[in-house]
Amino acid sequence: MEKSNTVNLDFEKTIAEVEEKILHLKDIELGDGVNIDGEITRLRQKSERLLKQLYSKLTPWQKTLVARHPDRPHSIDYINLLIEDFENLSGDRCFADDLAIIGGLGKFNGRSVVVIGQEKGRDLETRVKHNFGMAKPEGYRKVQRLMDIADKFNLPVIAFVDTSGAFPGVEAEERGQAQAIASCIERCLKLKVPFVSVVIGEGGSGGAIAVATANRIIMLEHSIYSVISPEGCASILWRSADKVKEATEALCLTAQDLRRLGVIDEIVAEPTGGAQRHREEAIKRVGMAVARHLKELENQSGEELKRRRTEKFLKMGRHLAKSE
Amino acid sequence: MNWISDFVRPKIKKASPKELSDNLWTKCPECGQMLFNKELEKDFYVCSFCGHHLRLPVLKRLQMLFDDGKYRALSLPKLQDDPLNFKDSKKYTDRLRSYRKLSGRDDAIVVAYGEIGGIKAVVAILDFSFMGGSMGTAVGEGIVRGAEFALKTKSPFIAISASGGARMQEGILSLMQMARTTAAINQLKEKGFPYISVMTDPTTGGVSASFAMLGDINIAEKGSVIGFAGARVIEQTIREQLPEGFQKAEYLQAHGMVDIVVNRTELRDKLIKILKLLLNR
Ligand SMILES: [Zn+2]
């Protein structure tokens, strides 16, 4: 498995130390007869073991950091690797082209599809270009437009969710952020084609569910999906930014929590040490899961897909009290 | 089926003399005038000096809307409390208990049915005084049951919102209520029954970004704050003063998001007029 270079997070200190040793050994000039290959292999195994240990019991807060890791594969990476002949389609036909959500047509495993992806950007320049993945109303209206195409040409929809939330700003409010999200959810529910959403990093509140009201919802192992950011929750309910870890625990926002609560359909296991360490492998695994779900959905009629999606969401959170 | 067979009266608590004198007057938060409570009630909690709309208790609003103040409450199923076992500075179950005690109701929603201008209608109304009218699974359930009842009885559905948004204490399940309520509204709309959304102060967050914005007709009560993100969050993002009238009902109308801005005293007449027009009565 090819390993991608990645920035270590604070809690990965032990691993960083081992990796540093490996780099150091590779660098030093050694005299004849000294064989360091064995030592490097040993250290590599150690680092792998530590990673496995660490990532098998990440806390919700650590998962939040991993989910937001800048080196995690982003929507653009998924599109590049999984979608052939991708053709980006711009604009909401009303106001602008919002690059916080990219979308278009392409081939997935040889079948034409509509792809939608929330894109955060990776460096300063691309982050600004994609508005840090925070869409404005024109983004959610672009999604609706693309879904019209999907319905008309009977193309399945694949959406990648990765946003801290919808953009909170004057111009977004002015152009109807609430209306744009509400009608986007409505549009998702009306789709008569198979619709699969994958939370690849951060599923932030209304901005996320606007593109995740799908037949199947998949989450990567260390992704999160929440009604509010842990920071926002801590400042509102605890009135203190220091309580962010407590808020993260309380919110039940990990993929494992959501599976337990019956909100999502599948968790895709990440390679050891997280998707940020093995980007291609993570993307391929997501691709396989999406393909499987689309296959399961392909024999359902348009009406059936729509009806089942509606029923799925009508049941969400309907946990009747046991006494009755 | 007999539509109106009994009348739901708000419980009147006996007050001590001290409470009575305190409860005789209310200060208008807008103009500062002291308003005599009896009169305020008669005026549907609209300030007689400046026209400011104070918050109207839900049962008072139902009385105001239905013909002769007569309606029946739809009984909602009891849901499992506290699905996440949530605790911040206080346990969510404790919060629920104290709000229930205070309000005498189970959660932040009441669903009622009766006649409005002689037209059978189902009304779901959010109670801002119950945890800020926040939408968790119980509020979602109320909207779903209300919409289903409207469908069953072939009646228009009116949702009256007053909410700070999703209920954080129910985490992702609260977020899911956005899709859930939208699904319920959708079913009703697709069958051709009118869905009218009335947004009162405030209607924000997950409620505005789901069923509240999806009315065939969107009505906003004068002066109400309506929007997605909170003003404080936006101020922190842009680090500048917000424009005059930002996120007020009139601002939303000017930007094309609501059809009609009404004075509360005209709301009932307006609803009757619209229902009659939509239904060609
Ligand atoms: Zn006044």
Can you walk me through this structure?
The complex is a heterodimer of chains A (324) and B (281). Chain A has 324 residues and is α/β, with parallel strands linked by helices. Chain A folds into two domains: 10-57; 64-314, 2-enoyl-CoA Hydratase, Chain A, domain 1. Helices cover 47% and strands 15% of the residues of chain A. Chain A has helices at 13-27, 37-56, 60-67, 75-82, 124-129, 137-152, 170-174, 177-190, 205-209, 230-238, 244-251, 255-260, 279-297, 302-314; strands at 83-88, 101-108, 111-118, 157-163, 195-204, 216-220, 224-226, 266-268. The longest helix of chain A has 20 residues, at 37-56. In chain B, the strands form two sheets. In chain B, strands 3, 4, 5, 6, 7, 8, 9 and 10 form an eight-stranded mixed sheet that branches. Chain B is globular, with a radius of gyration of 19 Å. The longest helix of chain B has 20 residues, at 171-190. Chain B has 281 residues and is of the alpha/beta class. At the A-B interface, helix 7, helix 8, helix 9, helix 10 and helix 11 of A face helix 5, helix 6, helix 7, strand 9 and helix 8 of B. The site of zinc ion (ZN) has 8 residues of chain B, from loops.
Distinctive features:
heterodimer, A: 324 residues, alpha/beta, 2-enoyl-CoA Hydratase, Chain A, domain 1, 2 domains, eight-stranded mixed β-sheet, 14 helices, 8 strands, 15% strand, B: 281 residues, two-stranded antiparallel sheet, globular, disordered N terminus, binds zinc ion
Short characterization:
The complex is a heterodimer of chains A (324) and B (281). Chain A has 324 residues and is an alpha/beta fold.
